[in-house]
Design goal:
Elements (H helix, E strand, L loop, with lengths): L7 E6 L4 E8 L2 E7 L15 H9 L5 H16 L6 H19 L7
Parallel strand pairs: 1-3
Antiparallel strand pairs: 2-3
Helix pairs in contact: 1-2, 2-3
């Protein structure tokens, strides 16, 4: 049984709906609220949220298809070290990169 009379409570809130409470010691209870839909941890681990960087980086793509392919490459590369199987995310990034390269080899993008 926890007594809250002499406890401090730390709330780390990153969104909803998942809540995890862990007792840190006899005088502290840590509550972590996460949001795997709006702000998943593998996209918010750095100084900037990945979606903000991606929006900035693909804005100059010549069309939505190429921008979408670039987006996917960057997305998978940005999170690969935070996932269970980095090789899988690297392979997914390679798949999208190969498709992007093939599209760029077609007219009107071919030099």
């Amino acid at each position: 049984m926890l007594s809250f009379a002499r406890c401090s409570v730390i709330v780390l809130m990153t969104g909803f709906p998942s809540i995890k409470a862990t007792s840190m010691n006899d005088h502290e209870l840590r509550i972590i609220v996460t949001d795997n839909v709006n702000h998943p941890s593998h996209y918010t681990a750095g100084k900037q949220e990945v979606i903000d960087v991606l929006e900035d980086w693909v804005q100059h793509a010549p069309d939505p298809v190429l921008g979408g392919l670039q987006w996917q490459v960057l997305k998978y590369m940005s999170r690969m070290w935070l996932k269970k199987d980095p090789a899988e995310d690297a392979a997914k990034a390679r798949w999208y990169l190969n498709r992007l390269i093939n599209k760029l080899a077609e007219a009107p993008y071919k030099e």
